[in-house]
From TrEMBL:
Its main location: periplasm. Part of a binding-protein-dependent transport system for aliphatic sulfonates. Putative binding protein. It is found in: Periplasm. It comes from the Bacteria. This is Putative aliphatic sulfonates-binding protein. Belongs to the bacterial solute-binding protein SsuA/TauA family. Pfam families: NMT1. Gene3D superfamilies: Periplasmic binding protein-like II (3.40.190.10). Keywords: Signal, Transport. GO terms for cellular component: membrane; periplasmic space. PANTHER family: ALIPHATIC SULFONATES-BINDING PROTEIN-RELATED. One of its GO terms (molecular function) is ATPase-coupled transmembrane transporter activity. Residues 1-37 form the signal peptide.
Amino acid sequence: MTVSKHFKINRRSLLQGATLALGAAATGVALTGSASAQGTRNTDTVRLGWGRGGLPLVAKQRGEFEKILAGEDIKVEWVGPFPNHAPSLQAVVGGSADFGFWGSTTPALAGIIAGSPFVFTNFNVYTPRSTAIIVKKDSGIDSVADLVGKKVAVNRSGLGEFLLVAALEKNGVDRKDVEFVYLNPPDASPAFGQGRVDAWSMWTPAVDIAREQYDAKDIFFEGTDLDFLIDYSSLVTLRDFATNNSALVRAVIDAYHQEGQWISDNPLEAETIAQKEGQYSDAVRDHLVAYKRQNKFYEADDTGFLADFQKAADWLAERSILPERITVSDHVLRV
């Protein structure tokens, strides 16, 4: 599948995609076992979104994930690559994928508010966190306070935008004094490199590549400068698909859990796979390996996790990153 780098998420496209999911409920309650008790499965093929980094990339490239599912007579088709979570969600509502990749919860929440019948089926929290706001070393910008009057590239309703909002708030800078430039990662990187924006709020590995490529430095680093989580990795599908194929969804989740454990246990091998896809230097790879990132998964009905997720969604709505409040427990499904 070829994905345009200009593929952007918006309310109209999500609403149009939602109309393709005929019969899907716009809202619902969390299920804690009824779907799995039925063990439903109406397809032997699952179409999974993937991007140029993270869990789905390693699963796709390593091949063990597909072998696990083949053992349950499930064929895997990979759809992508996508530059970030929003366009992979559009593929789900548009009918060309069954799951987005393990991407940001924020654009999924935005899609639900816009009318798309998404459900969260599983969550992943990886540590340490390495999203950062970077500037060029010769820019004259040495702190978040120096962003006043400057242009900062972020992805709308995504991790980049929320991190910038949090950084400004922590440093007492009014959002109105900073220009948010909404760009997807493939457009943001050259914009930053060419000086069309002064700073970029971005996640791994793109931020690590840009830090080396453009001789940049951090002025805000999520892992050390932010003491709470507002955004999580999530496995998202349509409610109808999950309820009609609960056994398949469970098999996909379990296979991803095994892949995530392998990544946690084998950082060099995992980062080498990502390096080959991203075509970046050994220095960047070794920097990422040094994180020794660990994956921890949460079921969709984990009450402790959902309480934290609700706080995050409220935080986003209070700051108008999400257009309105949303009850997250209405949009999770445990299989």
